[in-house]
Amino acid sequence: MFDLYQVRFFPFFYHELQRITMFHRALTSDWLLWFVQRKSAYLWRMIVSPDKSPTADSNPATPPACSARPPPVVPGGAATTSSRRNFLAAGGMLSVSSLMGAAALMTQSDDAKATVEWAEHFQGNYRLMTAAEKAEARARLERRYSAQYGKKVSVDTTEALPGVLMGYALNIRKCIGCRRCVNACVEENNQSRGKNPGERIEWIQVLRMERGEFSKEKMNEGYPEGLGIQVGGNAYTPAGQVLEGQYHYEPALVPEKDATYMPIACMQCEKPPCVKVCPVRTTYREADGPVVIDYNWCIGCRMCMGACPYWARRINLTTPVLPKEEMNPVTHYLGNRPRMRGVVEKCHWCLQRTRQGRYPACVEVCPVGARKFGNLLDPQSEVSLILARKNVFRLKAELNTFPKFFYFYD
Amino acid sequence: MHKLINFVIDYTRYVLKGGVKFYAWMGFLAVLSAGALYGFYLQNTEGLIVTGLSSQIHDGLYFANLVFLVGVAAGAVTIVFPAYIYHHKAMHEVTVLGEMLAISAVCMVMLFVFAHMGRPDRLWHMLPFVGIFNMPGSMLAWDVLVLNGYLILNFACGFYYLYAKYTGGHVNNKIFMPLVYTSIVWALSIHTVTAFLISSMPARPMWFHSMMPIRFITTAFAAGPCLIILAFMIIRKNTKFWIQNDAIDVLSTIVTWCLGLALFLTMSEIVVELYARTEHANGLYYLMFGLHGLTRLVPWFWSSLAFMIIAFVMFLIPSVRTNYKLLPIACVLAFVGIWIEKGMGLIVPGFIPTPIGEVIEYYPTVIEIMMTVGIWAMGFFIWSILLKGAIGILVHDLRYEGSAAGESIDFPRSSETVTRASS
């Protein structure tokens, strides 16, 4: 299952990382989308509204948090960014605002929540929104969440910082399998936590691996069925273990004597297969590294879940079970804000924290310091030093997904 | 314009009228469809939790039927191709019935898409210009494109032909034939793209091989004609329209060889995967023998294989193939065999084990089954209406009053017209 033998040491990968970051946009098909949209914006202005020029950029309503835009990752990025804005301002904004107007008329209600939810249905893709629209969407969400959870909920829209490429490193030697990271993640990121199957969502799995797989006393226990060692049964009637790495274990004490642990979560790939397959571009790689989802744009087709080789994505089978008192009110639009029924979610390296200079919840809670997080572009950051000095590997490196989640050992 | 309005009115009036048998059949389908609507309501209020889907196995019965029905839609080309490329006369008379099948199969596919989606209310996000259509990148976007294109092509070809028959005019071959040729190539494209949809994911080793598109096409060209043969048998028995034996024989020959190829490809997969028996073969191994004691799909696989082999042997023997008492049995066996193989037998084991090695089973819930049956019923409802209208026009029950349709258009002449123009 895990290609531990596929060890890629850092010096080899470093150049690839540089290259991929530089040409990421060029390698993927983003340019074509931008081209099409540039044309469509032009056509829209020519045909439909020749007198309305997009002025959203100079909108005074733009909050300071949104005015700091990330610098272009690639040369020419600024031009494409503004053209995307033009497209939205010209096409999307007109249609969205007119639809919202129509919606407000149709509902004819003073119920702010209903109006807000109705307007939410017609908002555009977050990545293509203008700063003004982002502020609008943010205010809408803050109102709805605050009403829904009975407390002041903030929805951060801080964008990627220049010169940052987030990276993660995990020391598999140190992990003791306490699963505090799993629970901290659930609490921090407002995951569904119901009792029924399908109502509890965890983004981190700590895989418990049997130690002594090849020990002498196990040699006579039959031929293992493809994955893992077989416990009980024989070659033809296997029994016992269903997983190579069991992740629903509740030990009285950790670390257990006969186990090693392998925590996994979203690998935040540089070349994410999930992004490629998304038919509506609701999931994408942010400029500072994490692959994020605009939950309001997701159509729930689950192609991304099929494409992910790390099983990092979860579908909200029902409206997430999130008690009011347990809800974390500090949220990010692309991060831990409460999700809705029928959309996909995943780890985003706690954008609500990391964009404010804090560590992700899992890093903060880890009692043994197995989890390290930092800026890959800063040669003095902890992660960079680990990549330079330790033995580092990534999972399923043969799939060319180029994860930014590294495993290392002393 | 007057003719067109009359066509719409006459057509509607004709398909709404029928005997007791017709109303009983349509009522039965309508009841089943109502079940699907209820299921859809539940899924969009409670969520997908009412299905057996999970984050581990997130595509199940709906996706399986979707994939299979794309094949059925593509299978309609087995009528169009002999009719227009080989100028097969008996086939040419019934081409339009195949096109009607394609239309209803694509409708079913779209209904299954709705059933499958977590947020069907957001489908507009996929519309180009209004939303975002991730065109060159996403295989699903390609699939949406080719399926809609196929629907439009078949609708245009089928109804243009019927309209010409209705008015007693001639089909303008300069417009018609390019559409027909396009639809033939397009039929291949819909199933190829659907195969790419799942075979382009290295995360799912069971699907990740280049044999997938050709296997999809061979199974499609076996399952599609099987359904068409069955429909032809029913039409011959219950309507005035007589479908010639020749047409059925051509179809059963096509089924024979496509079924043979499908079995050959299945065998190739089994040999290649199980000879080395790497971890990537776990999905297939789960399907054939079960994995870690979980064996839910094993009987499905073996029964599917048995059905397909028995059907193939039956089709292979000419005296059985042309025996219209035994032929329907072979057709049903092949159809069901392929439905299992390409539906549940292909989609579900793709997720077992999951990319992190979890072995878990999938149980469709009652609601899922109700919805699947209901969507099939809706498809048959549409198909019944389309077939009734088409047959009405073909047997001249339904024609434009002012025209001398009965005399000016009969089958041999119209096929001659097409033949002359295309040769």
CATH superfamily of chain B: Formate dehydrogenase/DMSO reductase domain
Q: How much strand content do the residues of chain B show?
A: under 5%
pLDDT averaged over residues of chain B: 90
| Distance N to C terminus of chain A | 23 Å
Coarse morphology of chain B: globular
Largest sheet of chain B: none
The 3D shape of chain A can be described as: globular
Structural class estimated from helices and strands of chain B: mainly alpha
Radius of gyration of chain B: 22 Å
By DSSP, the count of extended strands of chain A is 13
Strand content range of chain A: 5-15%
Rg of chain A computed from alpha carbons, rounded to a whole number of angstroms: 23 Å
Domain tally of chain A: 1
Describe the structure.
The complex is a heterodimer of chains A (410) and B (423). Residues 1-31, 50-98, 100-110 and 225-242 of chain A have low confidence and may be disordered. Chain A is globular. In chain A, the strands form 5 sheets. Chain A has a 4-stranded mixed β-sheet. In chain A, strands 4-3-5 form a 3-stranded antiparallel β-sheet, with no helix packed on it. Chain A has a two-stranded parallel sheet with strand order 1-9. Chain A is of the alpha+beta class and 410 residues long. The longest helix of chain A has 31 residues, at 77-107. Chain A has one domain (10-168, 268-409). Chain A contains 12 helices and 13 strands. Chain B is mainly alpha-helical and 423 residues long. Chain B has one domain: Formate dehydrogenase/DMSO reductase fold (Up-down Bundle), CATH 1.20.1630. In chain B, 71% of the residues lie in helices and 0% in strands. Chain B has 17 helices and no strands. In chain B, helix 7 packs across helix 8 (212-238). In chain B, 52% of the residues are buried. The chains are: A alpha+beta (410), B mainly alpha (423).
